[in-house]
Amino acid sequence: MRMEWASEVAAIFRRWNTKLLRQPIFLFFSLIQPLVWFLLFTQAFSAIGNIPAFKLLTGTSSYITFFTAAVIIQTIASSALQAGIGLVNDIDSGFMDKMRVAPISKSSILFGKLFSDAISTIIQVLIILLIGLALGVSIASGILGALMIFVIAAAFGIAWSGISLFVALTTKSSQTTLSVGLLTTFPLLFLSASVMPLELLPGWVQQVAKVNPFTYIAQAFQFLIINGFVWDKIEYAFISIIIIGAISLGASLLVFRKKVY
Amino acid sequence: MVVEDLRKTYGKDILAVDGISFRVHKGEIFGFLGPNGAGKSTTIKILTTLLAKSSGKATIDGLDIDADQAQVRRIIGYCSQDVGVDDDLTARENLMLQCSFHHIPKDEAEKRVEGLLQKVRLTEAAERRLKTFSGGMRKRLDLASSLVSDPKVLFLDEPTTGLDPQSRQDIWEYVKQLNKQGMTIFLTTQYMEEADRLADRLCIVDQGRIVAEGTPNELKARVGADKITLWFKAGDLAVCEKAAKALSTLEGVDEVGKCVEGLTTQEGLAIMTKNGSAVVTQVVRALDDADIAVEQLKLSVPTLDEAFLKLTGKTLNVIERKEAIRTASFGRRRRSS
């Protein structure tokens, strides 16, 4: 049974990878917005780095170095949207029915897609880090730190995709899936420690940021980039990933198994 | 396959399938004929485990569609109305993917895929992405992809809707072949011709209910009589009356129409009988004996269209509605007298 599951996931994983390789343009579409932010936002706000408290709190006076984490998170979030959209496309084309009528488990349909999305997330994060390096961002934790960033990014991507899968399976509408994703990403980004250190945020935003998973993912990235391996930050990131993943993927799977088409 | 009192309701009021029961025997082609919204797709989706039923019972090869869902999925193949193939992949990749869904080992899968590609004449297009395929090619591939597991029962949901005539012929040919090799086939259609040509037995469904069940011939016979129509030279009312008189006493003839000036020239003289093909020779002979010149003769047997109209009180709203008419070969007969 376990072997069968692995081979099902592998088949679906390969299918999505092939699709991705044949439509590489989509990989860059979801990169456009984060990159525009990376290049423009950091220019306009570069003076933030000169605030003494900023340097004190973050350990760097380069805002672009700090902001790299926010760009990565934004990329993951917009990439996660694609998981749900891909599923809706399959439902619309009738391919989903073909999979559902085959003797394969529902979870392999989802995980095959999620693992393939993780690959594209890693590619995107790699591109961002390379552009960051070109812009003068250096990663304090080195190559191993970069690998850790990939792992956190992929894992968070899978967990966050669960939300778009859930919306997609519940509404079967790519419009809704897209809007839910777009409408949540920006508020969550600004209500977290990704664009500004937690301590510099106004009181009520701090309260929200403390329960916002983006904060913990961002801090893990920020510390890996600016300071090096700070294990409790990485731990917090994984705890948030596990909590979000358990809820979002559990709910998606439940809907997928129950859903009457 | 045994289906008993199957029901499906959506929400509170919408009754898509309203208590249907039927049996499909091993090795037959069973047709489900009805207009859009009759509940055909809903039924096929319940039987293929895609949709939960509201009540009733259904078994396929002794397996319950709910309790033994996993096993049912191993013995069925399904072609949905919308073609379930991946446009970004090639034909071969699509089939290989389906093979992996059915856990067929790679070597075996490659062999099967090659065979299937040949069967649906797509060997040459095997490495092309489906984006470049025509509607007919995609449907053929879709059919092939539902065959990778060599299913015992194949479900086809309106397999030829929207296809060009040539592709339709192809699909019919494949379906017949598969059936000859012993595959049981359940198909829904809104085309009379399709049901007539393919189905060994069929159900006529309307508004979620089965209104009639039988072989195509049985259903046609329910409509009743065959009709022989005769046309005489224009305005030749006297000849018509003479013919009507001669034929009214003929054995096997149930009813002879009236000769009306003008109308008879257009509509012809109608003769109703239970056995058209046998009576038509006697009619010709009787007319010959009476020296009556016939301009044209036509024998029409009831069509499934008429059966449908009679059973449901409405016509199928399908563009293509051919009348199955056998125009007698001795149609134009002219005699000197």
Unreliable segments of chain A (pLDDT under 50, ≥5 consecutive)? none
Q: Overall mean pLDDT score of chain A?
A: 92
Counting DSSP E segments of at least 2 residues, the number of strands of chain A comes to: 0
Major protein interface: A-B, 25 and 31 residues
The major pleated sheet of chain B works out as:
6 strands, mixed
Which structural class do you get from the secondary structure elements of chain A?
mainly alpha
Stretches with pLDDT under 50, minimum 5 residues of chain B: 317-337
Portion in beta strands of chain A: under 5%
Write down the secondary-structure element order of chain A: HHHHHHHHHHH
Amino-to-carboxy terminus distance of chain B? 63 Å
Topology overview:
The complex is a heterodimer of chains A (261) and B (337).
Chain A: H1 2-22, H2 25-44, H3 52-58, H4 63-93, H5 95-100, H6 106-134, H7 142-171, H8 174-190, H9 203-210, H10 213-226, H11 231-258
Helix pairs in contact in A: 1-6, 2-4, 2-6, 4-6, 4-7, 4-8, 4-10, 6-7, 7-8, 7-10, 7-11, 10-11
Chain B: E1 2-10, E2 14-23, E3 29-33, H1 40-47, E4 55-60, E5 63-64, H2 69-75, E6 76-79, H3 91-101, H4 106-119, H5 135-145, E7 153-157, H6 165-180, E8 184-189, H7 192-198, E9 201-206, E10 209-214, H8 216-223, E11 226-231, H9 237-248, E12 253-256, H10 263-267, E13 269-273, H11 276-289, E14 296-300, H12 304-312, E15 325-326
Parallel strand pairs in B: 3-8, 3-9, 6-7, 7-8
Antiparallel strand pairs in B: 1-2, 1-4, 4-5, 9-10, 11-13, 11-14, 12-13, 14-15
Helix pairs in contact in B: 3-4, 5-6, 8-12
Provide a concise account of the structure shown.
The complex is a heterodimer of chains A (261) and B (337). Chain A is mainly α.
Task: Characterise this structure.
- The complex is a heterodimer of chains A (261) and B (337).
- Chain A is 81% helix and 0% strand.
- By secondary structure, chain A is an all-alpha fold.
- Chain B folds into two domains: 2-214, P-loop containing nucleotide triphosphate hydrolases (Rossmann fold), CATH 3.40.50; 222-326, Alpha-Beta Plaits.
- Chain B starts with a strand and ends in an 11-residue tail after the last strand.
- Helix content of chain B is 36%, strand content 24%.
- The longest helix of chain B has 16 residues, at 165-180.
- Chain B has a six-stranded mixed beta sheet with strand order 6-7-8-3-9-10, with helices on both faces.
